[in-house]
From TrEMBL:
Residues 7-240 form the ABC transporter domain. This is NitT/TauT family transport system ATP-binding protein. Transmembrane segments: none annotated. Belongs to the ABC transporter superfamily. The keyword Nucleotide-binding applies. PANTHER family: ALIPHATIC SULFONATES IMPORT ATP-BINDING PROTEIN SSUB (PTHR42788:SF13), TAURINE IMPORT ATP-BINDING PROTEIN-RELATED (PTHR42788).
Length: 261
């Protein structure tokens, strides 16, 4: 019997009430997807096609209109501790030091002080922040804050990481360094992730698979396996000659040239 997917969407549709015009907006329609243990999957698609909506349903923050979402085989009906979210905004608590921020979720989970300190130190080391554990968020650069947010997301030991454009607010070079941290850390921890991005090379550098969505109502129109070695080393991967072929394919699917004409 095949292994249970870490996260699975079964024929999921999401409708929002349209208060101004009456009726409703179909944000996502009939989406089915399944992500295996340790896989990293990117979701790309035009603005407003329902990517964030899909992630919100995966986290249990937003209910589905029809269909089902399962995490580790269990039906998702509300936010649960097996799924962790990372957003473009780091949402660090300004009155807590970096290590206290990383420990926050574990405090809620009821881990002992010693346990959570040890796990936080370990993750902050992996995220190259050992020298900054006692700093406050405002004393860190944007890139460092996002690294701290990654450590905090991993600290609660989620089954699945849902990431909504986590690096889109960063400059191009900082972004590449952060992608490298993420690629390495996900490989080391063996975590499963569903990742939204508008950056085609980022999707290629980080993922096992890329799911391409249509204009709203968002449907999955193509699934592309990224057949390039070094998934744990995005910096190396993005220099691979095959990357250009994938970019061309994604541009065609997203009709980027037509949109610019
Ligand atoms: N709470 C809501 N109420 C009503 N409509 C909503 C709500 N949330 C999202 N929508 C609508 O659903 C559609 C999909 O939005 P969503 O934010 O999921 O798109 P997206 O693909 O993540 O966009 P972007 O790439 O610009 O971030 C949009 O038309 C949006 O206006």
């Amino acid at each position: 019997m095949p292994d249970t997917p870490r996260i699975e969407f079964r024929n999921v549709t999401k409708r929002f009430a349209n208060h101004r015009q009456g009726g409703h907006v179909v944000a996502v329609e009939g989406v089915s997807l399944s992500i295996a243990d340790g896989e990293i999957v990117s979701l790309i698609g035009p603005s407003g096609c329902g990517k964030s909506t899909l992630l919100n349903m995966g986290s249990g923050l937003d209910p589905v209109s029809s269909g089902e979402v399962h995490v580790d085989g269990e039906l998702v009906t509300k936010p649960n501790r097996h799924v962790a979210f990372m957003l473009q905004k780091d949402l660090l608590l300004p009155w807590r030091t970096i290590i206290e921020n990383v420990e926050f979720g574990q405090e809620i989970q009821g881990l002992s002080r010693r346990e959570r300190r040890q796990r936080a130190l370990d993750l902050l080391g992996k995220c190259h922040l050992t020298d900054f554990i006692d700093h406050y968020p405002h004393q860190l650069s944007g890139g460092m804050r996002q690294r701290a947010a990654l450590a905090r997301t991993l600290a609660v030991d989620p089954t699945v990481l849902l990431m909504d454009e986590p690096f889109s607010a960063l400059d191009a070079q900082t972004k590449m360094v952060l992608q490298q941290d993420l690629g390495r850390t996900l490989a080391e921890t063996g975590k499963t992730a569903l990742f939204i991005t508008h950056d085609l090379v980022e999707a290629i550098a980080l993922s096992d698979r890329i799911l391409v969505m249509s204009q709203r109502p968002g449907r999955i129109i193509e699934e592309i396996e990224v057949d390039i070695e070094d998934r744990d080393n995005p910096m190396k991967r993005r220099q691979h000659p095959k990357v250009a072929t994938y970019v061309v394919r994604l541009m065609q699917l997203l009709q980027i040239e037509q949109a610019a004409a």
